[in-house]
Design goal:
alpha/beta; 7-stranded parallel beta sheet
Length: 372
């Protein structure tokens, strides 16, 4: 079997590596090529690691790199046309992957096209669904409400569970909470840190005066991001005694912190599975924000709230993301009864993600499709 796989961000690479591990076990001799990250490349060297360059968020940011993306797209499409693979597996990353699906359907009519981790078309751009029905052979959904939506439109779909359930269960540590530790998670991209960290710095500055018992910590995904935050902390006059910056201890911090301030994205679902009481924060360039406001058709952006269908986790987005509002929510969540109530609601929401085994279920679904 000859399979191509495409993921465009670190989170997609993590999920893709788990899927590949199961596919290689179920289909010995499987030949895999494509684009992904370090995890997928380690398993299959012909999967190129491009995730750091490809992980761009926002309309404006993507437009600035349009030429680079177009060049990569056309090069990969030509390779796929030449190889005529048995299967193409697309992981999240809809702007790139849905266009690739359309072209591969045209030039490789016998290739089975599978999507793992559905584009969130239920949140915005539902007009994409008919095109997905025409171009995809199987949608593997990680949220329970997605599969019925696609099936009703005529696309074969399966709910396989959320990969994070297994990932967090394997590393989560209990009974290590530190009651005075506030965990800060500004995001894993330079632009996210540049937008979020100044607010975090002001929160630390104020709370260190009014609540000297509190400690603050953040975990950078790499040394370059850690140094970026250290420079910003020094510029803000923050003492290392009250604010600690670590590298590569992201999940450990989610287990240890009493309260979290978490940038919107995969990290918010990870925080829920780590049973960390948190608030969701996010800020984007103003043009990106107004464009998103026009397109997004749902009440919430946090998955816990979407799953619960009510405001369980406080969302402080754009103009609401201020030091005053962050401090107010930190103080609220440091009260035991408020924490307990939030934790109970978060657990009810996250339990809807399934009981684990998402990557294995997805690999089995791919094998069934290829054997038809």
């Amino acid at each position: 079997m000859n399979l191509y796989i495409i993921a465009g961000e670190k989170s997609g690479d993590i999920h893709g590596a788990l899927l590949l591990k199961n596919l290689l076990r179920l289909m010995p001799g499987l030949k895999v090529r494509g684009l992904g990250g370090g995890g997928m490349h380690a398993l299959c060297p012909e999967v190129e690691d491009w995730a750091d360059e490809a992980a761009v968020i926002g309309f404006v940011e993507v437009a600035k790199k349009y030429g680079w993306f177009r060049k990569r797209f056309l090069a990969l499409l030509e390779q796929i046309r030449r190889d005529q693979p048995d299967c193409l597996v697309l992981i999240d990353y809809p702007g790139f992957n849905l266009r690739m699906a359309e072209k591969v359907r045209k030039y490789c009519p016998h290739t089975k096209i599978v999507y793992f981790i559905s584009p969130q078309v239920w949140a915005w751009h539902r007009g994409r669904i008919p095109k997905m029905v025409r171009t995809l052979d199987l949608m593997m959904c990680i949220f329970p409400f997605e599969a019925p939506l696609f099936r009703e439109a005529g696309l074969k779909s399966e709910f396989v569970g959320h990969p994070l359930v297994d990932e967090i269960a394997a590393i989560r540590k209990e009974s290590v909470r530190e009651p005075s530790l506030v965990g800060l998670f500004p995001g894993s991209r330079n632009r996210e840190i540049d937008r979020h960290f100044p607010v975090f710095a002001e929160v630390i500055r104020r709370l260190s005066r009014t609540r000297p018992d509190l400690k603050f910590e953040t975990a950078a995904s790499n040394e370059a991001l850690a140094e970026r935050m250290r420079g910003m902390a020094r510029k803000a006059g923050m003492s290392p005694d009250i604010f600690n910056i670590t590298v590569g201890r992201y999940h450990e911090l989610m287990d240890r912190a009493a309260v979290g301030v978490v940038a919107s994205g995969t990290a918010t679902m990870e925080a829920a599975l780590h049973r960390l009481p948190y608030m969701l924060v996010y800020k984007v360039p103003l043009l990106t924000y107004w464009m998103a406001r026009m397109l997004i058709k749902i009440r919430f952006i946090g998955m816990v709230n979407i799953l619960a269908e009510k405001p369980v986790v406080k969302e402080l987005v754009q103009f609401d993301f201020t030091p005053d509002k962050v401090i107010e929510e930190i103080e609220r969540l440091l009260v035991p009864e408020n924490r307990d109530a939030l934790l109970a609601e978060m657990k009810r929401a996250s339990d809807r993600l399934g009981q684990g085994g998402a990557a294995e279920h997805a690999a089995q679904a791919v094998c069934r499709l290829l054997s038809e």
